[in-house]
Every structure is written in structure tokens, then in C-alpha cells.
Amino acid sequence: xxxxxxxxxxxxxxxxxxxxxxxxxxxxxxxxxxxxxxxxxxxxxxxxxxxxxxxxxxxxxxxxxxxxxxxxxxxxxxxxxxxxxxxxxxxxxxxxxxxxxxxxxxxxxxxxxxxxxxxxxxxxxxxxxxxxxxxxxxxxxxxxxxxxxxxxxxxxxxxxxxxxxxxxxxxxxxxxxxxxxxxxxxxxxxxxxxxxxxxxxxxxxxxxxxxxxxxxxxxxxxxxxxxxxxxxxxxxxxxxxxxxxxxxxxxxxxxxxxxxxxxxxxxxxxxxxxxxxxxxxxxxxxxxxxxxxxxxxxxxxxxxxxxxxxxxxxxxxxxxxxxxxxxxxxxxxxxxxxxxxxxxxxxxxxxxxxxxxxxxxxxxxxxx
Length: 368
Ligand code: NAP
Ligand code: FE
What we know:
Structural class: alpha/beta
Bound molecules: NADP nicotinamide-adenine-dinucleotide phosphate, fe (iii) ion
Largest sheet: 6 strands, parallel
Oligomer: single chain
Number of domains: 2
CATH class of the largest domain: Mainly Alpha
CATH architecture of the largest domain: Up-down Bundle
Radius of gyration: 20 Å
């Protein structure tokens, strides 16, 4: 029963333009860190208009890649150094939002480099810039989590930085998510579902996070709001978009307390090596992870809340909505298993001991 709960990010849901005053108090120059789609979904124009009204200068880095690497982040950091930005505005899915956090860690520290992002002690006590996060996908919850996931070519995978940085404010305006392609909508919604399920099954789950998960899963399940049915039918009207966005933030609040567990750790290998989108990479492993999990009571609760009769039904639904064509050889599974097992700290988020054979079995049963 012993746990604590930290969630300092202020969350603002609804029309972004109603929250103009929330952009004041951070200084006269913002660095906007984003990808390409914010220029066409209305979010970048709205932010620039707000900053214009407030007479805050803006420089825009719009080159964040999907699953950004530390090298990609450094391009934005250099823009921050050159421009003297006082705060960071991240606009986008998890990729730009995570990049924005990494940029905020390094801009006030010109003596540091990308290598310092990966060193637990190297930014200890150092200043960081405030981050305002505007979500344009509904899946990662990065706008409310302190985690920053970057690609590391050195380790040939993706990993979480050892520094925690909560955005100061998170903005949830579902209209920016409307033009997501169906595949991005489905993959990111599966990421949020994965966060809820992994949070529930994590060794760090607690009574409070469990209650949040149960309410979130109920929204996916048929009884609570038909989100799973809407996902199967690819029917995404504004009420559905709102539910997906709020559930994504809720799931982010959950993993802030519980961390993610094996499907995420394993999914990073599929994303790094096969370019499988993040949510799909975790989602395709979920059903077999649940089958492997020793806490049968919680697994049964998940199925009940999702209004499913058994794990096979869940696996079939995931395969249908994710629509992946993945080909992974036995040798590749051996390699991925080694990468996963080289992260013992993260393996501890599973509440029971895990052997290499367990990891390769989950990969094999999920993918082949
Ligand atoms: P993403 O990589 O940010 O975006 C996926 C694609 O969708 C990109 O091509 C993006 O284009 C486009 N896109 C984004 N918003 C759009 C919109 N409104 N309309 C049309 N297209 C849009 O995908 P994501 O799943 O949100 O983020 C994945 C990343 O988040 C991974 O690196 C993952 O590891 C990380 N993650 C972080 C956390 C955390 O707590 N920090 C948790 C889970 C996952 P542009 O980017 O070019 O605009
Ligand atoms: Fe995720």
C-alpha cells in the first residue's frame, strides 16, 4: 500500500485559442520544436498567432523525425543556442514532444553535448527550459509524462533518457488530431491502450494507478464507450477523437507512476529494426504478454473491462486494427532478445523474474 504520486504538469483541454494567457510568463522568445504535419493540421498557425498577440518572438525547428535520435535533437538544440530561446513549445506526436524535452535539457547548457543526454549525472542540478506541449496525436501521453524516448544508434535501439522532465503545461485540443491518417490514429490509440495495460501489469502498479487504468480500459471496452468498436470500423468523429485524446493523457499519467514494461521494451527493437510504428510495435506484443503474465486475476480484469471473452479474441482484434506485414527471422529474434536482456533495470518493471527464453517466446508467438 506504500506509494507516492507526482503529476505536476498542468493540463488544459479544449480549444487552444482559449488558453492564450497560459503562454505568458516564460520570456520573450520561444523555440517551437515540431515535425511537418503541424503546418497542415492548424496547430502551428494557432501557436504562432497566440505568440504574435503576446509579442513573443518565435523560431521554428520543424525537422523532428519519427522516433528522433539524439543527433536529430542536436539540430534543434543548436537553433536554441543561436536564437537565445527562453522556453520550448513542442507541437506534435510523441516524436516532437520528446524531442522538445531533450532540447529543453540542453539549450541552457552550451557546454554539454548529445552524449550528456544519456549520462544520469551529467545534467544533475543544471538549468532546463520550461516546456509547453501541444499533442497532435492521441497515444503517447508524452505531453504529461516526464519521459523522453530517443533513438540511440550506438545501442541500436530506442531508450528512455535517464533525466526526467515534466512539461509545465499540456494542451489537449482534439481538432488537431482530426486529419491523422487512419493508420496513425489506430497505432497511436493502441499505444495508449498498451500504456494502460502495461501500467496495470507493471511491478510498480499501485492502488491509485490501478483505478485510473480501470476507468481508462472501460472507455475502450464496448460497455463504457465503444472505442474498440469505433477503431475496428475506423469511425473517428470528434467525440471519439476527444475520448482517444483524453484517454491518451490518462494513460500517460498512469505510466508516469508505473513505467511501461515488456511490450514497450521489446517493441523498441521492432521499431528500430523494422520501422514498425511505435504503438503498433507494442500492440502486436500485448496479447502474448498478457498470456505470459502470472497475475491471472489482473489479466482477467483487463479482458472483462475490454468486454472480451479471451486473449485470442484480443489478439485477433489487435491484428485486424494494426494491419502489420511483419517478417522477423529466428536469428533476428535471438538478436532482439539479447538487446532486451541487456536492460535489466527495465526488465524489473515486470513483477516476476524474466528469462531470455520468455522474451523470445513472446516475440515468436506474437510475430511469426
Ligand atoms: P509520431 O512519430 O510523433 O508521429 C507519427 C506520424 O504522424 C508522423 O509522420 C507525424 O508527422 C504524423 N502526425 C502527427 N500528428 C499528426 C496529425 N495531427 N495529423 C497528421 N499527421 C500527424 O507518433 P507518436 O506515436 O505520437 O509518437 C511516437 C514516439 O513517442 C516514439 O518515439 C515513442 O517512443 C514515443 N513515446 C513517448 C512516450 C513518453 O512518455 N515520452 C510514451 C510513448 C511513446 P510529423 O511528426 O512530421 O508532424
Ligand atoms: Fe508508448
